[in-house]
Amino acid sequence: MDISIFLAKFWGWYLIIFFLILSLNPKRIKQIFTDLKDEKFLIISSFMAILFGLINILLHNIWEPNWKFIITLMGWISLILGLLLFIFPKRTIAFLQFINIKLVQVIYTLLFFTGLFLLNMVYNIVPF
Q1: pLDDT tens for residues 1-19?
Q2: Do residues 24 and 112 touch, judged by C-beta distance below 8 A?
Q3: CB contact at 8 A, 112 and 12
Q4: Whole-angstrom Cα distance, residue 63 to residue 65?
Q5: Cα–Cα distances in Å, from 60 out to 4, 5, 34, 69, 109?
Q6: For residue 7, with 0-12 CB atoms within 10 Å meaning exposed, 13-18 middle and 19 or more buried, which class applies?
Q7: Cα 51-18-53 angle, rounded to 5 deg
Q8: Mean pLDDT, residues 41-57
Q9: Distance set, CA 46 to CA 52, 54, 88, 128 (Å)
Q10: What are the tens digits of pLDDT across the range 16-41?
Q11: In this structure, are residues 73 and 17 in contact, taking their beta carbons and an 8 Å threshold?
Q12: What sign does the dihedral 109-111-6-66 (CA atoms) show?
């Protein structure tokens, strides 16, 4: 299986599942920010983000102007967010909370449509 297809499936399903969980149970958002104040949770979360981002970048660092760019961007965002959480935890958490409060609907809608787009590229549900 092509790595682009695999990562599009991974990120597509991940984003859809994440969107559904946060939409059906909005208390999870508050719980995530509460848990980020715990050092152990913060370190594990940042290491996971760094790991996912680094693996994504090493396997798929394609900077072409097509759907594969989104996969590369997801990897870089994950890596950078993980590094920021690990190096500057308090400032990063404060920034994420600010963004979440101001742009919550835009972010979750973007997550949903990005996931749908990636899954559509893989499964070709709506050809274009």
Answers
A1: 699 999 999 999 999 999 9
A2: no
A3: no
A4: 7
A5: 7, 11, 33, 9, 25
A6: buried
A7: 15
A8: 95
A9: 10, 12, 11, 37
A10: 999 998 888 888 888 888 888 888 99
A11: no
A12: positive
Q: Helical H runs in 1-128?
A: 3-24, 27-35, 39-59, 68-87, 89-123
Instruction: Please provide the average confidence, as pLDDT, over all residues in the chain.
Output: 91
Report pLDDT for 47: 96
**Residue 74's closest CA among 96, 107, 52, 100?**
52
Place of tokens 């695999």: 6
Longest dimension (CA), the chain: 46
pTM score: 0.88
DSSP state of 37: T
The DSSP result for 58-94, as a single string, is HH-----SSTHHHHHHHHHHHHHHHHHHHHSHHHHHH
Q: Is the pLDDT of residue 70 over 70?
A: yes
**Annotated domain spans of the chain:** 3-123
